[in-house]
Amino acid sequence: MVVTGLVLASAKAADGDPDAKQEVRDVAALKRLKKRKGISLLYVKGLVCPSCAIGIRVKVGKLLFVDSARYKRGVDMDTKTQLLTVALLPGVKAETRSLSKAITDAGYEAVEWYSLERGKLKTHSFAVAKKSK
Amino acid sequence: MWGRLGACGAFVLSAFSVPADEPIMNMMPRWDKGWGLQLIDEYRHEGDLLLGNRTAYSGFTEDVHLLHFQGVYTWDRSVRLTYKLPYVLDARREMPDGLGGKRVEHDSGVGDATLALPLKKYLNLDGRSGSWTFKPMLLVPLAGDDNYEIYDNEWGVGIGLGYEFEMHRLAFVSSVSFWAYENEKPSESHLSLDLGYNFSARGTNGTLFWETDYHHEDDGSETLLAGPALYWNFNDTLHMRLEWKHDFHDRQGTLDHGNGDRYLLSLGIVF
Questions:
Q1: What does the pLDDT look like over B210-269, one tens digit per residue?
Q2: Which of A9, A51, A105 lies nearest to residue B233, judging by beta carbons?
Q3: What is the pLDDT of residues B111-164, one digit of tens each?
């Protein structure tokens, strides 16, 4: 029974947790961007457990453009949607390259970041950003 | 017959299991250039002296109180170096004296150290994160050399393989390992299967596990032990783990203690 449960859980995980589907994530991202100011919002693949955030906080919290006084060392996360909110210092823009590297060094994969354009969600791929540099 | 067994019992090597889990709490640090220290207070009580499947001497107990000093450094997130140094605070066992009574033996002091090089391959999927582990290990003899030793003062080499993943609520950890020793101590195999539920409370988080371990030694000894464990993440630096395991099946290839329980309290710091 235990083995069957594990196999089922594993199979479900391989397809992705329903909470982490793109549609669900987009809705959550839009809501968060409208509600919070001075942030960078990212989708980080694999950021599924509260303990996962420790490495992210260690690495991202050290970046010069991060306001580590907000949230927990400048980082807030939602393990259901794998959305990572990074608090930015006033008037400073996030450097996507160093953000992506910090997340990789922490053991995870930065997939895309989000912005609001005329009230609508716009998605930017880190892979495209890397290629264009 | 029991008298003869008792006399032999004085010379049996004490079976011990090299802890399969690695610092810190088998999880951290997953990041580059991370390090941590972990202290484990372990107490175990064995209720009987076993030979094969039967209880040779009922009520002949063994009580062992250990401290484990452990550390980890992660160069690259896929390469860790860990050490584990046990210290026997007090070990006491009752053996037959060959005259129908009990002889009490004690042990204390430094145990054998374990060095390991866990090599990790991480996977990050949509809704799931985990890793595969390959782990060469070395047991370094540092213990004393008496009739009764919790640690046998022998060189040993081991190999471990592991697979683990976490989801929003589910945690799964599995591992197998094999140990071979320098002299007469029988080789050992270990199998471990942990299933956990992640929870959050008051700004902290943790995992409630059900853990099952199986140990086999090539003299025919085998133990199936299982029980709950609670991992608690107080903050990014301080972590705690409480663990209780009960022997559900115990068989000893040579006269040795069994049918017991194991309790562990771990505190870890990670940077």
A1: 999 999 999 999 999 999 999 999 888 999 999 999 999 999 998 999 999 999 999 999
A2: A51
A3: 999 999 999 999 998 889 999 999 999 999 998 876 688 888 889 999 999 999
Question: Which residues are B57's β-sheet partners?
Answer: B49
Query: For position B41, which CATH number holds?
Result: 2.40.160.40
pLDDT mean over A100-129: 90
| B31 contacts on A by Cβ (under 8 Å) | 54-55, 58-59, 105-107
Residues in chain B: 271
> Contact B80/B95 with Cβ under 8 angstroms?
no
Rounded alpha-carbon distances, angstroms, from residue A22 to A111, B126, B152? 12, 9, 55
Report the candidate in B96, B108, B113, B95 with the shortest Cα–Cα distance to residue B150: B108
Please state the ipTM of this predicted complex. 0.76
Measured CA to CA, the distance from residue B89 to residue B193 in angstroms comes to 29
Q: How many domains does chain B have?
A: 1
What chain A holds in terms of domains, given with CATH numbers, is 17-132 (3.30.70.100)
The terminus-to-terminus CA distance of chain A in angstroms comes to: 51
How many C-beta neighbours within 10 Å does residue B96 have? 23
CB–CB contact B128 A19 (8 Å): no
- Structural domain that includes position B214: 2-15+23-270
